[in-house]
Amino acid sequence: MKFSNLAAFSTLAAFTSVASADCDYVSGNYYCSETDAVVYSNVGYSGSFMDVTNMDESTCACTQEKVTFSGAMAPLDQELSVHFRGPLKLLQFGVYYPSEGTSLKKRDATASEDCSTVIQHQHRKREAAVAVVEVTSTVYVDGDGELVSATTGSAVGFSDSAVSTAVVVTSSLAPASSAATSTAAAASSAAASSAAASSSAASSAAASSSASSSASSSAASSSSSSGASGSGWQRVSYYSPGSTTNCTFMNNEGGTAGSGVWSSCFGNSISFAASDGVSGASSAQALDEVTLASDKEYMIFSGVDCSDDSIGDCGYYRGDIPAYHGFGGKTKMFVFEFLMPHDYSSSTNEDMPAIWMLNAKIPRTLQYGDSTCSCWSTGCGEVDLFEILSSGSEKLITHIHDGQGNDGTSTGGGGTQDYFARPTSSSLKAAVIFDGSDESIHVLEVSGDFGSTLSAATVEEWLNTSGSSAALSS
């Protein structure tokens, strides 16, 4: 999502499966079946990326060093920032961590089970058979659908403009009951205690770090998980129009309105966002109920300033910026309610809304610009949650970009060409659940309220939503 229109998607079989799949090729991209949920499995690997260690204004150059990582969800267990591009209206956003001792287990549907409570969490229930996508290798095709290259783990790079897309389309029909689902694991006791404290933190529009830094340690950096029976999930961050708790809205307007900086070398840094989402501000403000126009962006960090290193080190970041922690940990959940109405007011990224996550190191150095000034191009991690790939499209795609299954470049990862329906006139509620216990990420539509707590049963029902699955290769 961040830079390139050429995405390295992955698929189980060779190109012959692409040709036989029931998919449509539209504006350089393939779309297969509408879905309510996508489940990524086998998330996490051992690898490295190049981390920024300095941004030199005198030479306009950045220096980097190699950082290694390993384990379930890595590198996506590191702190993430959450990004939004218009046209989009955000109505709710929240972050949850498991309460102490929580363990959520998949409930297998049986003939005697009343499935009505599960089905109510699926806005658009599909037929009994759903498309299941397994992702283990990479296939590139050109604009005519012809095979360019396939790989099972080595890096492939193309500069030829004729290579316009890469496709994931190995779809097989399977009973809905066999679609991938998983367990949502618990976070550590330390994460739970901080999460509980956060629910009583100040809910003023300012969302300053001082009010919630100690209460949001889990939201910023928790990375451990354990399993036992328990009570559910605790909300540690929340936004509704005009009000925030442990959320900091930012954009890339540094140097324009009292926060952040601008330079001829690196342009505008991140800054506090004003309540309209598009202007800069001198201090943190809560977003009003606004519809972000095409190609305009803002992002959300936690309310914990990077000067608070008791919950982890933010690493290097550009000087004189409002630097805040993101949301870390192997097990965590993000919830959203949003609309994406049509808007053709921009000459770039026209009517192409998106919601995605980045390794929080990226915007704290340079989100757009010289690739050596962020860790993005070397695979430190991005998750595209709901992204429109061509102007005016009604189909939202999800994809993971990191080095998994590749050699550490951002062209690894995987995804599916099944899609969510774009919510243009009525809002969509969604949950994104990172489960460190079984190395999965669930991106799914849900219903119900996003209260200060969510019961284990509610989240279990969400996890049982049938949909597409994408198994990442090691």
State the end-to-end CA separation: 22 Å
Largest sheet: number of strands, sense, barrel closure: 10 strands, mixed
Helix content: under 10%
Q: Kindly state the number of beta strands.
A: 34
Q: What is the average per-residue confidence, as pLDDT, rounded to a whole number?
A: 75
Beta-strand percentage range: 25-35%
Number of structurally distinct domains:
1
Oligomer: single chain
Region (Disordered): 212-233
GO molecular function, one term: glucan endo-1,3-beta-D-glucosidase activity
Family: Belongs to the PGA52 family.
Organism: Lachancea fermentati
Features of this protein?
10-stranded mixed sheet, 474 residues
Structure write-up:
- By secondary structure, this protein is mainly beta.
- Strands 4, 8, 16, 17, 23, 25, 31, 32, 33 and 34 form a 10-stranded mixed β-sheet that branches. Strands 7, 18, 21, 22, 24, 26, 27, 28, 29 and 30 form a 10-stranded antiparallel β-sheet that branches. Strands 1, 10, 11 and 12 form a 4-stranded antiparallel β-sheet that branches.
- β31 and β32 form a beta hairpin.
- The longest helix has 10 residues, at 189-198.
Summarize the structure.
By secondary structure, this protein is mainly β. It is built from 7 helices and 34 strands.
